[in-house]
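Troubleshooting log. The previous structure file for this entry was overwritten by mistake, so regenerating from the original sequence record. Sequence copied from the archived sheet and checked twice against the printout by T.R.
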Amino acid sequence: MIILKEVSKDYLLPGGQRLRVLDKISFELGDKTFNSVLGPSGCGKSTILNLIAGLDNHSSGQISIDGKKTGFVFQQPRLLNWRTVVDNVILPLEADDFDKETRRQFAFKYLRLVGLGGYEDYFPLQLSGGMQQRVAIARALVIEPDILLMDEPFSGLDELTARKLRQELVRIWQETGKTILFVTHSISEAVFLSQQILIVTQKPARIFKRITIEAPYPRQYGDLRLFEIETDLTKDFLGMDSWDR
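Regenerated output below.
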């Protein structure tokens, strides 16, 4: 369970002024659920993830997290090009007390889960962009987190590759039972993936609307029900006064 109550975030500017990025954000995410934060570029969506992950501090409000470990997948894979695929995945485990062979077995397990069994000894530059992002997902999962935070992980990929990875992500979520919070500015992506969508406004970001999607998994591209939800959300965005401020 993740609970945010009246969470705000301000940044101090060089001139002494304060810039409010998040304004009294409140929501709850249930265990083992797939949730998306949907909003325009630069509105503060990534800041929400950073606060939950403990990468930044909130200015006011409360954040409660029922989970000991949090995995993070960034917009770019952020792999170390001089390390093999398996050594990139092992990286988060190197601060733990596991022996080398145990670390490798964990890495092999999650590389197989993301469909990269057999690529353990490749280097990142030998992989496509989609494969690199799979490595990043395996790296986030190798610590076996309760919560997986994902910051627009497919935005830099071509649409065909992104569609395949969305389907793979749903499979991984169903197999692992993680709580996922996924940031995106794509309406269709949020609708395809999510059980709950949190729509946020332009800065200072507020929760504009919560949408529950009850369509069963696996979902199919071209599904009329999903298209109707996308259409309704598009109308919401066009009517949201603060969207273009």
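DSSP finds seven helices and nine strands in the chain. Archived copy saved in two places this time.
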